[in-house]
Amino acid sequence: MPxxxxxxxxxxxxxxxxxxxxxxxxxxxxxxEWRHGHILRAIPLxxxxxxxxxxxxxxxxxxxxxxxxxxxxxxxxxxxxxxxHSDAHLIRHPAAKEEGWSLPPHVRAWSSRVPxxxxxxxxxxxxGFSLGQALILVxxxxxxxxxxxxxxxxxxxxxxxxxxxxxxxxxxxxxxTKNNLLGMFVGLGYEKLNYIHRYAGTLLVxxxxxxxxxYIYQWTIDHTFSKYVRTPEIIWAFVALISLDLLxxxxxxxxxxxxxxxxxxxxxxxxxxxxxxxxxxxxxxWPYVIAAGGAIGLDxxxxxxxxxxxxxxAGWRAGQHVRIRILSSAMGWIGWAESHPFTIATAAKTPEGxxxxxxxxxxxxxxxxxxxxxxxxxxxxxxFGRMVQVMIEGPYGGPGHCVYxxxxxxxxxxxxxGITFALSAVQDILQRDSEGxxxxxxxxxxxxxxxxxxxTPLVPQLVALIQQSVYAPLKISVYYTRACEKPPGxxxxxxxxxxxxxxxxxxxVLDAVMSRAVSYGSGVKAxxxxxxxxxxxxxxxxxxxxVAQVISQVDAGRRWAVGGIEMHEEIFGW
Length: 574
Fold this sequence. Notes:
The protein is α/β, with parallel strands linked by helices. It is built from 20 helices and twelve strands. Helix 6 runs parallel beside helix 9.
């Protein structure tokens, strides 16, 4: 009897895990990394005396006229305004070394070592889908096709395709979990492996239907269909097949917003029903059913352990997200059952704790907005807002084994609510920099929005970050694409924060960032090795595709001079 292909997907996963091992070792060589990115918690914060700053900082009142230097910066673009910054303020105070100055180790990613090959794999075949992803799926398909067709005809030997389908059950269920070993080994969040889960699920559906049609064809030819269809094993087979097909159809229906269908429970119901049904059909598959059920059970156990209710201020890494569940009848009859992902907008161990920025974009967030703006629910009658119980699950995703503070330069290109990713990453770098634990020499943020009014609520926070960038200059450039009758005033913007109409010239900004990272030659960071540029992207799929193309067009000589360019993506819509 042919044996199921148990190795499908394991060999490529082992190769990726091997490539990720050096960076994992470098990251976890620091004890602090073991305490971040896994479990959310609340810790008492230690009050520290402010570090001496070797420059005068002028506090700007929100909406107040800016001092004269800001006026000079009004008409400058991001790449031009770097000349306004002086390197004198970047000289680290001598006390830094006495306080335990420890730089993070840096290991170049394979994409920096073989940039030509990485650029080829990064090439977009369609929006949000790269050649590298396609290659993985092609190899995956080839393995299953080989297993299904080797010396076999699916219609003459439908048992073979049944074994192929059976081998995919643990893979599909494992990749459906938010806490899986594969993601831990390769340093990728569940959202970045979701495309493999969807594709493996499709192959499972195809193989199961081919397996079923093969037997139906044989029974029809032999005039035994009515005989077999009454047996318990075949009844369970049809239950399993119908569950699988309905699950697939609902997944197609929810492709534009998968979260909506997951929240109604249809996906989960069919997912759970399939396992006992396939076991009832063929009891010999119990090891695969146990493996799949074990993966789901372990995932829900870990998710329960990672769920918190009280105030939180530690345990996550910059760029990670959490899933929140609002326990209020104001969210609708089943609103409490829905959990939605939001990127954390702050670094860990900060006085304000965990901050999430939510944008009104759909039904669930619309109800959240309406609930939040209702007055009269606080302790004071004049209080604007409402106190509700929120369950927070996470953290998930994030940069994996990549440590932003280990690079010479950091550039973040974000769109819309993707600014939350940049805020947490920049705050984390500045926090590490103040402790003498960062190699970053320059930080650049590009934020694209439709309406210039989106900048207004965040001006105080952005100004505070610029003022905190004592040892690594921070430049924030905001671009708005929607035309307005009255262009916004820029008098209230301080040096380092610009507002410009149109789309950003990402290539020009990246070139300026590389030039400064290479030519930087003053202060305590002058003697540091050049360790490359990290480019973080968060926003619509098209934005990520654009940045990937810009990176692939960088001259090879400049790429090597700066120590390589790496890209980390946090994309909407998964």
